[in-house]
Design a protein that fits this description.
The chain is mostly helical. The protein contains two helices and no strands. It is rod-shaped, with a radius of gyration of 64 Å.
C-alpha cells in the first residue's frame, strides 16, 4: 500500500502521530474536565449530605423544643387548674364567711331592735300604768286613806332597804 520511502507514507505517519497527539491532548483535556466535573459533583454531594445532616439536627432540636414547650404548657395548664380550684374554694369559703357574718349582724341588729321596741313598750306600759294608777288614786282615794297609805309605805321602807 504505502511504501516506506514514499511521501504518502510519511504523511500518513505524521497524520497518525498528529491525530495521536491531538487525541492524547483531547483525552487529557476531556479526562480533566470529567475529573473536575466528578470532583464538583462529589463536593456538591458532600455539601448536600452536610446540609441534610444540619437539617436533620435542626429538625431534631425543634422537635425537642416542641416537646419541651408542650410539656411546659401542660404544666402551666395543670398549675392554672390547681390555682383556679384553690381560688374557687377560697372564694366559696370567703362568701360563706361573709354570709355568716352578715347573718350574725342582721340577727344582732334584729335583737337590738327587739330590745329597743320592748323597752319602748315597757316604757309606754309604765307610763300608762302610772297614769292609770294616778287616775284611780285620784278618783278613789280621799285625804284620810292617802295619809294611811303613806304611813304604811314609810313603815315598810326599812324592810325593803335591808
Amino acid at each position: 500500500m504505502f511504501a516506506v520511502g514514499s511521501g504518502e507514507f510519511w504523511v500518513a505517519v505524521a497524520f497518525v502521530i498528529a491525530v495521536a497527539l491531538v487525541w492524547r491532548k483531547a483525552m487529557a483535556t476531556v479526562g480533566g474536565m470529567l475529573d473536575d466535573r466528578a470532583q464538583r459533583i462529589e463536593s456538591e454531594l458532600a455539601e448536600a449530605q452536610r446540609l441534610r445532616e444540619d437539617a436533620e439536627r435542626t429538625l431534631g432540636e425543634y422537635q425537642r423544643k416542641q416537646r419541651d414547650a408542650l410539656k411546659e404548657a401542660e404544666q402551666i395548664i395543670a398549675h392554672a387548674r390547681i390555682e383556679a380550684e384553690r381560688l374557687g374554694q377560697k372564694a366559696a369559703t370567703d362568701l360563706e364567711e361573709a354570709l355568716e357574718r352578715r347573718t350574725r349582724q342582721a340577727e344582732e341588729k334584729i335583737a337590738q331592735e327587739e330590745a329597743k321596741a320592748l323597752a319602748e313598750v315597757r316604757s309606754i306600759a309604765v307610763d300608762l300604768a302610772i297614769a292609770a294608777a294616778r287616775q284611780l288614786i285620784v278618783q278613789q282615794l280621799d285625804q284620810k286613806a292617802g295619809a294611811a297609805l303613806i304611813d304604811d309605805a314609810i313603815a315598810a321602807l326599812p324592810q325593803q332597804l335591808h
